[in-house]
Write a structure and sequence with these properties.
Blueprint lengths: L13 H15 L44 H9 L57 H18 L3 H14 L4 H13 L3 H14 L4 H17 L3 H14 L4 H14 L6
Length: about 270
């Protein structure tokens, strides 16, 4: 800090002395360095969200000018000369079947039908009920088998109504006799009672399922019931099944022969 001293005559002019003293004091005081005032910071402009680019419409393809090719006189003459009507497609009659591979000389070999499956040999006859009465058979079963055999002979003689009496007596003695159910079904079939015959056949089949000879007899008789009721497809199925079990079943063979003769159209006179 510096001090300044002035010698001022106060008596001469007191106002001038005061002014000069004030000016000297101010001039002796330290001066602040001069700085350029800094302007206040401006607020940053708000950041707007980026806008999606506006898709520009596709430019229409410019068609290139096509100039006609020069016509060759030779090509024109050739087109005029070769202008012939197109060949007609082959008709159905002219189409030929593809040749069978391996046929000599390109000749179609006739297609042979596959032979029917061979039937097994016939089973031995097991229709005798008296042969089933062995020493180990209980007396009730033996008596029932004798009465059933009596009813079978009456059926073979063409008397189904009379055959019912011994057959029903035999079943009353031994209701577990499976052969009695079969012959009762056969008697009902001969009397035209086909539904009753079917019921007895169902019981006989459940008890004779392990004997192929008698199972074939059951299916053959079932075929007779179907044929008598006009159900020929089902009758044919039953006959064929009976023959597969026993090719020697005469009832099934005769039934199939009747079905084939009925299916043939009557010849005109």
């Amino acid at each position: 800090m510096r001090w300044c001293s002035f010698k001022i005559p106060l008596a001469a002019n007191p106002l001038l002395a005061v002014f000069l003293a004030t000016t000297g004091v101010l001039s002796c005081a330290p001066q602040r360095p001069y700085r350029t005032p800094v302007p206040p910071p401006r607020p940053a402009p708000p950041v707007s969200a980026p806008q999606a680019p506006v898709p520009q419409p596709p430019l229409a393809p410019t068609e290139t000018s096509r100039q006609p090719l020069p016509q060759d006189p030779r090509i024109r003459e050739q087109n005029i000369v070769s202008k012939t009507p197109p060949a007609a497609p082959p008709t159905a009659k002219e189409t030929k079947e593809p040749l069978k591979p391996g046929s000599p000389g390109g000749v179609r070999a006739p297609v042979e039908a596959s032979p029917p499956p061979a039937l097994p040999p016939p089973l031995p006859d097991d229709s005798s009920l008296l042969a089933k009465i062995t020493p180990g058979v209980p007396p009730q079963r033996a008596a029932s088998l004798r009465l059933t055999e009596e009813g079978r002979k009456l059926l073979d003689a063409g008397e189904p109504a009379r055959a019912l009496t011994p057959l029903e007596r035999g079943m009353a003695i031994d209701s577990s006799n499976p052969y009695g159910y079969f012959y009762l079904a056969k008697a009902q079939n001969r009397l035209g009672r086909y539904k009753e015959s079917m019921n007895f056949l169902d019981v006989a089949e459940s008890r004779l399922g392990g004997e192929p000879f008698w199972l074939a007899e059951i299916h053959a008789l079932r075929g007779d019931n179907f044929r008598a009721q006009g159900q020929f497809p089902r009758a044919e199925v039953s006959y064929n099944y009976a023959l597969r079990l026993n090719s020697g079943n005469r009832t099934a063979a005769e039934g199939l022969a009747r079905l084939q003769s009925d299916a043939q159209p009557a010849s005109k006179p």
